Amino acid sequence: MPPGIRAEKSARLCEAIAATEAWQTARTVGFFAPLPDEPNVELLWAVLGERTVCYPRVTGEDMVFIRVPDRSALITSRWNLLEPPHREDDCVPPGALDLILVPGMAFTADGHRMGRGRGYYDRYLAQPGIRATLFGVAFSEQRVPTLPVENHDIPMTRVFFA
Description:
The protein is an alpha/beta fold and 162 residues long. It has a single domain, classed as 3-Layer(aba) Sandwich (Rossmann fold), CATH 3.40.50.10420. The chain has helices spanning 3-18, 21-25, 120-125, and strands spanning 28-30, 52-59, 62-67, 75-76, 82-83, 91-92, 99-102, 106-107, 113-114, 133-138, 158-161. The protein has a seven-stranded mixed beta sheet. A hairpin with a 5-residue loop joins strand 8 and strand 9 (113-114). The chain starts with a helix and ends with a strand.
């Protein structure tokens, strides 16, 4: 996708997210650092207000969300992803997140998601105490009519297609 189109679609998607009640009432939001084939949800930093931002970090086979004061705190991981440094004091308990923006390779309109195959989000979202609204985010080209669904798959509350 050409960079200009990606930017336009990302801006529309972020405007739609920012208009939701879930965004407006969220105090702690789980972001992700987008890969080139994912919508740029980081545009939401511009309308952050007093929210606490957290980013995921992979630790072994698990994922944790870590408080990030600003995007410049992110570092490049071994998978060439931007992640926060692991600081135990900045780890956010799963039940403290109000809204989580979730990437994926494909989504259905009813909230089913296909990830990249390692199961990090599935394991994280299956933890007891998760109460966050889950917003799947994708480009319209990633919308599919159906996906195989397994018992461990956690559906999104809502999916935003740009």
